[in-house]
Amino acid sequence: MVYEVKGGWILPNLERFLTKLEQVSVPTIPNRNEAQMNQTLEVIKTRYSCRTFDGAPIPEQTLQEIAHAGLCAPSAKNRQPWRIITLSDKALIDELDANAMARMAISSPKDHQRLMDRGGTLFYNASAIMFIAKDPAGIAHYIDLDCGIVASHLTLAAASLGVDSVICGFARVLFDGEAGEAMKQRLGFPPDFDFSVSVLLGFSDRPANPPHEPDPNKAITVS
Ligand SMILES: Cc1cc2nc3c(=O)[nH]c(=O)nc-3n(C[C@H](O)[C@H](O)[C@H](O)COP(=O)(O)O)c2cc1C
């Protein structure tokens, strides 16, 4: 948003500046009132993995904003070794779901059973999928980490816009073997790019679940 002030001056970053101010004023006392948290922390703390989407379409502009947030992710040596491929054709999503479930029944019966117990779908009736394809030109041992950070940006941006999400690693099954190469082409992966991870997006068909319980013992302070 752009703000005009006297004499035609433009102050383009006012909104950003105000957000910073809000962040600076966050109290540091423990057990603070949730209402006082800044919005970024609130989104981080309330994002959860949704596995029951209602299938309603997500506006195109919202998808673009989410994808753009993914592109803002940091990466090793700023190689940005990724493409974010957004699929919002529901009929195709459902076709890929059936395809993936059939493959998984053969390649990973245990995971298949886990998904059957969760409702029998891989994509949980999501309205859109963002496939994060990895570029082999990245720093080899950081490429998947870089793509994982993109996935995190996508889920948090989605949550901030009222869109539910879940990271989906199981989608890998679509890209295995010879059939997987054909799938990469069909979805527009550039040559030599491989699947890293994906994010399912949509709107929950029920009230939000709580996210996992963070374990405070896993953050260690050395003094
Ligand atoms: C790399 C990665 C892959 C994941 N793959 C799947 C998946 O294929 N299917 C799924 O339902 N959840 C998947 N998840 C979601 C996790 O199960 C979920 O984040 C975890 O249970 C914690 O729950 P929360 O996100 O609600 O806090 C994945 C998460 C990560 C980080």
Structural commentary:
The protein has 7 helices and 6 strands, in the order E-E-H-H-H-E-H-H-E-H-E-H-E. The chain is of the alpha+beta class and 223 residues long. It has a domain at 53-202: NADH Oxidase, CATH 3.40.109. The strands form 2 sheets. It has a 4-stranded antiparallel β-sheet with strand order 3-4-6-5. Helix 3 (60-71) packs antiparallel against helix 6 (143-160) and helix 4 (90-107) packs across helix 5. The longest helix is centred in the middle third of the chain and has 18 residues, at 90-107. The N and C termini lie far apart (43 Å). Residues 1-14 and 16-29 have low confidence and may be disordered. The structure holds flavin mononucleotide.
Kindly report the CATH topology of the domain at 53-202.
Answer: NADH Oxidase
What fraction, in percent, of the residue positions are helical? 25-40%
Low-pLDDT runs of 5+ residues are 1-14, 16-29
How many beta strands in the DSSP annotation?
Answer: 6
> What profile does the largest beta sheet have?
4 strands, antiparallel
Number of helices: 7
CATH superfamily descriptor of the domain at 53-202: NADH Oxidase
Spatially, the strands of the biggest sheet line up as 3-4-6-5
CATH-defined architecture of the domain at 53-202: 3-Layer(aba) Sandwich
Strand residue content: 5-15%
Give the cofactors and ligands.
Answer: flavin mononucleotide
Distance between the termini: 43 Å
What number is the mean pLDDT?
Answer: 88
Oligomer state of the chains in this structure: single chain
- How big is the Rg? 20 Å
- SSE series: EEHHHEHHEHEHE
Class by SSE composition: alpha+beta
CATH classification class of the domain at 53-202: Alpha Beta
